[in-house]
Specification:
The protein is mostly helical. It has eleven helices and no strands.
Length: 228
């Protein structure tokens, strides 16, 4: 049986210099909030010209979109181990993405971006929320969905609706963690690797094929398959 493919999810979109600029911009956001995120401030912190910022990222919304894309690119799967096959290979890749997702969501940058988006929404401004959905969560959904569909093609997973399977997996991974952190709670030493492994195991119990995890349960959504 062929191994599930690795999904390329590195920071291929930007050059190392641009990545460094985006890291500086994210640091400014964490330290100073929305007001600190000015073109002049980013240029000063990153030791580059404002002209370079406009050339690379366009206006402020373009810079924010690039920051979010850069942040979401950290949620990636490691390349499949040489010779790895079957459920173990797929589970390892899913767990790798899950661990990175938990680390990113628990980080100061993600919390700052989400709190800023919530504040904007309360003022009737939804621009940042849209950017987070389009450049943050959507690429992560694409990567995870690609792995899920690869697992289905290899008959390791059985589901009718890719989006519903993805939502189930995302919920098992994140649970209430992000909401708790946004409200100021702490993780109290919760290990991302342990949480991720538990989520993947529970997902395979729900969607694993008979030869791997026991009888696959009847699903809803048959004939309504979506991936986007």
């Amino acid at each position: 049986m062929a191994s599930p493919p690795s999904i390329a999810t590195g920071n291929e979109t930007y050059s190392p210099r641009q990545n460094a600029v985006l890291e500086s911009a994210l640091g400014l956001l964490v330290e100073g909030g929305e007001r600190a995120l000015t073109t002049a401030g980013v240029a000063r912190a990153a030791n580059c010209s404002k002209e370079s910022l406009y050339k690379w990222f366009g206006d402020r919304d373009g810079l924010l979109a690039a920051m979010i894309t850069f942040q979401s690119s950290k949620v990636k799967a490691a390349p499949a181990a040489s010779g790895a096959r079957g459920r173990a290979a797929l589970a390892a890749q899913l767990a790798g993405i899950a661990v990175n997702l938990l680390k990113v969501l628990a980080g100061d940058v993600s919390l700052a971006l989400n709190r800023l988006a919530i504040g904007q929404a309360r003022r009737g401004e939804a621009d940042l929320g849209l950017l987070l959905r389009e450049h943050g969560r959507k690429p992560i959904e694409t990567r995870l969905s690609a792995l899920l569909e690869a697992g289905r093609r290899e008959r390791l997973l059985d589901f009718a609706d890719t989006r519903e399977a993805y939502r189930t997996l995302y919920g098992l991974i994140v649970r209430d963690m992000h909401v708790r952190l946004l409200l100021g709670d702490s993780l109290d030493g919760e290990e991302p690797a342990k949480r991720a492994a538990q989520a993947i195991d529970e997902f395979f119990r729900l969607f694993g094929t008979e030869e791997n995890t026991g009888p696959a349960r009847e699903r809803t959504g048959a004939g309504n398959e979506r991936t986007g």
